[in-house]
Amino acid sequence: MITDKIEFHNKEYLIREIELPKIGNVLISTVELNDLLMNDKGGYVSDEAISVDEKIYYFVQENEIKLSDDDLIKLLKEQAS
Predict the structure, then answer these.
(1) Cα–Cα distance for residue pair 23/81, rounded to 1 Å
(2) Which site from 4, 45, 66, 81 is most exposed, i.e. has the minimal number of CB atoms within 10 Å?
(3) Rounded to the nearest 10 degrees, how much is the dihedral formed by the CA atoms of 60, 63, 66, 70?
(4) Mean pLDDT of all residues belonging to the chain
(5) Over 80: is that where the pLDDT of 80 sits?
């Protein structure tokens, strides 16, 4: 499991790159970050938020981002179906 961080509004948030079958390598981050990117009306809070969101394929809970690659891929498949 390889993690990195992405900065938004001067705070760092975990991101992970995983390889999904048929899709390839994607970035995953946390719901906490996603919540900050959007306003209460469902729009982006800034152009920077749009840029950050476009890099992230999917958002998961803080504890889920620390799962093994296999467990995280399984979780994403379950949530997508």
Answers:
(1) 15
(2) 81
(3) -60
(4) 93
(5) no
